[in-house]
Design a protein that fits this description.
Layout (H helix, E strand, L loop, with lengths): L4 E5 L14 E7 L2 E7 L6 E11 L1 E3 L5 E5 L6 E8 L7 E10 L12 E2 L8 E6 L15 E4 L5 E3 L4 E7 L5 E2 L10 E5 L5 E5 L13 E2 L4 E4 L4 E2 L4 E9 L5 E3 L3 E3 L5 E2 L6 E3 L25 E3 L6 E8 L2 E8 L5 E10 L1 E3 L5 E5 L3 E10 L7 E10 L3
Parallel strand pairs: 9-22, 14-19
Antiparallel strand pairs: 1-8, 2-3, 3-7, 4-6, 4-8, 5-7, 10-11, 10-24, 11-20, 12-18, 13-15, 13-17, 15-16, 16-20, 20-21, 22-23, 25-31, 26-27, 27-31, 28-30, 28-32, 29-31
This protein binds zinc ion.
């Protein structure tokens, strides 16, 4: 995580205001010099990087102004000084500061580690944007993953660590990068110096606090739609701190329900899985085939209606005819499919016995990037014997 802080000073006023989630940088004046210090109330070490955007009539003690580690809870740590050159002339400066949790000099990701999916055991969500995702997973977010999920979905720690940063005071979100600073998040520092980043959480959506030690799989908060977000989802990444004060996402592996270590793929559905918890039924829509519905016939109670019903499993739609009458019908099913295909050629004609629900077809999306839709039409006539 990083923040950009721009400080402008025209003559000698000193006014620095920071949110509580940032290190507090301040100055003390000594004759014709400004001495810069920082207070950090972070529970972990942070790395601070400060550069000069503009120095007029000031001489800096170092360039970049500061680049280094601030210990946890360190108070009045000396950073650098700016010395005024010519007292008869006006002087000004502008500096920019970035910080990140962790230590870029020692952080080294354990690539053998396998992460839990960041949601509850047995729940299933679609990975809607993966590594290199074209919507927003570029640059420092290159190796992030987005899971579509309703707001308020429980979020679990993918890996153990110390809660280093929490923001949960934002109500605001939208599908423009200008909302980026409005995202709520939790950052958890791992033992190897990397961090797990859980982003777009709902307002007051953290159940952990800064300095909490969490174990993998532990409930840490609830998903939302805050920040730069085109719809309710969780953005998760594993990152390493950089010496310029930014965080760079890195590739990592998830633990699948069958114990396999997998690299996350866009447009797939994944189950949360935590070792030692009780098994759950696994059903993926993409695995369904018409073979699963061979000779399918469900008896239903009389309701006098005949119509098409559907069932949705992931992105797969199962189509049935429901005949709640005591008559036999010859039914023709037509479709209008947009960016989808039917596992059974349509139109198709079926004889539907009384009080029965029979299987017609499976509809699968074609191209995963573009939206798909379907319409199903039914015509029927009674068969008299
Ligand atoms: Zn994302």
């Amino acid at each position: 995580m990083h923040r950009i802080i721009i400080i402008f000073l025209s003559v000698s006023n000193i006014l620095f205001l920071f949110a509580q989630t940032e290190p507090r940088i301040y100055t003390q004046q000594q004759e014709n010099a400004y001495i810069f210090y920082v207070d950090s109330d972070f529970p972990t070490e942070i790395w601070l990087y400060i550069t000069a955007k503009k120095l007029i009539n000031f001489q800096a003690s170092s360039m970049p102004l500061y680049e280094g580690l601030i210990q946890k809870n360190e108070i009045k740590k000396y950073l650098f000084q700016l010395k005024r050159q010519d007292n008869t002339k006006s002087a000004s400066y502008q500096i920019s500061s970035m910080f990140t949790i962790g230590n870029p000099l020692t952080a080294h990701h354990d690539n053998t580690y396998t992460y839990y999916f960041p949601f509850e055991h047995g729940t299933k969500f679609k990975l809607v944007q993966g590594y290199h995702g074209t919507f927003s997973h570029t640059g420092k977010n290159e190796y992030a993953v987005d899971f579509a999920m309703p707001e308020g979905t429980p979020i679990c720690a993918a890996r153990a660590g110390i809660v280093a940063m929490v923001k949960e005071n934002s109500h605001i979100g939208g599908s423009s990068p200008s909302y980026a600073e409005q995202a709520n998040y939790i950052h958890i520092l791992h033992a190897d110096g990397s961090s797990g980043n859980y982003v777009h959480l709902q307002y007051q959506g953290a159940v952990v606090q800064i300095n909490d030690h969490v174990v993998s799989g532990q409930l840490i908060g609830y998903s939302g739609n805050t920040g730069f977000s085109s719809g309710p989802h969780l953005h998760f990444s594993v990152s390493l701190p950089k010496k310029n004060g930014s965080l760079q996402s890195i590739p990592f592996f998830f633990l699948r329900y069958d114990g396999q270590r997998i690299s996350p793929e866009e447009n797939k559905y994944y189950y949360g899985f935590q070792q030692g918890k009780k098994p759950f039924p696994v059903l993926y829509g993409s695995d369904l085939s018409i073979e699963n519905f061979k000779d399918y016939r469900e008896l239903i109670v009389e309701d006098g209606s005949i119509h098409v019903t559907t069932e949705q499993i992931d992105d797969t739609t199962i189509v049935y005819i429901h005949n709640g009458t005591k008559k036999t019908y010859s039914c023709t099913v037509f479709s209008k499919l947009s960016n989808m295909y039917s596992a059974v050629f349509l139109p198709v004609v079926h004889t539907v016995p009384p009080l029965s629900k029979i299987f017609i077809t499976l509809l699968h999306p074609n191209q995963k990037k573009t939206p798909s839709s379907y319409r199903i039409y039914l015509s029927y006539k009674e068969i008299r014997s």
